[in-house]
Hints:
- The protein is of the alpha/beta class.
- It contains eight helices and six strands.
- A four-stranded parallel β-sheet has the order 3-2-5-6. It has a two-stranded antiparallel ribbon with strand order 1-4.
- The chain starts with 10 loop residues before the first helix and ends in an 11-residue tail after the last helix.
- The model has no long low-confidence stretch (mean pLDDT 93).
Amino acid sequence: MNIFNFPDTWLEPLGKRFCIDFLNEMESKFLKSNTENIAIFPPIPSVFRALELVHFNEVKVLILGQDPYHGFGQANGLSFSVNKEIMIPPSLKNIFLELKDDLNIPISQHGDLTSWAQQKILLLNSVLTVEHGKPNSHQKLGWDKLTNKIISRLSQRGNMIFVLWGNSAQKKLNLIDDKENKILSAPHPSPLSAYRGFFGCKHFSEINKILIKNGSSEINWKLN
Length: 224
C-alpha cells in the first residue's frame, strides 16, 4: 500500500497508470532513503494537501512555489503557507505587503493560506517535500515529473490563471499555453528580489479582474 494518500479526484485527469507508477516510484525512493530517521516536511499525510483542497476541474488560479519550508511545524502542504501558530516567513510577509498595497487588505496576523485554497486556488510547490534544515534537498528526487504533469494538464484544460513568481517558477513557462490561459509573472517575493518588481506587480487585483471578465467569482484575499 502506498505511503502517500493521493487524492482520487486527480487520478483520471493526470492518468491513473501514470499516478500509480509515479507513486510507487516515489515510495521506493522514500523507503530507500530511510525516512523514519529523517524529518521530512510537510508531514507525509499533508504532501498532497494542495490537491485535496481543489478538484482539477475547479482550479481557477495556480500560484507556484519552489519547495516547502524546511523548519519544524512550518510547511502545511500549500505553497508559501505556514500553520497559524508559526511565525510568518519573510517571503509571505512581502506577499501580504503587496496585497495591502494592491487592495488595501490588512496584513494578516497568521500565514495559513487555506482559505485561498478553498476558493479554488491551487497553491502548488514544484517540489513537494524537503528534509529538515536542508532547502532544495529533494529537488532531484523526481517530484517535478508529477508537478510538471499537473501544470501541463491544467494548461490543456484552459481558462486558468498561472502565477509565476521568481526564476524557478518561470522555468515552467514552456508547459503553459498562453493562448488558452493567463500568465502573471514577477520576481520572487523573497527579501532578496521583492524590490526588483514583485512590489507593485498588483497581481491580486489583476487576478480578480480576469476572473470577473471570465464570468467567475473574485477571490476574497482576506484570510480567515
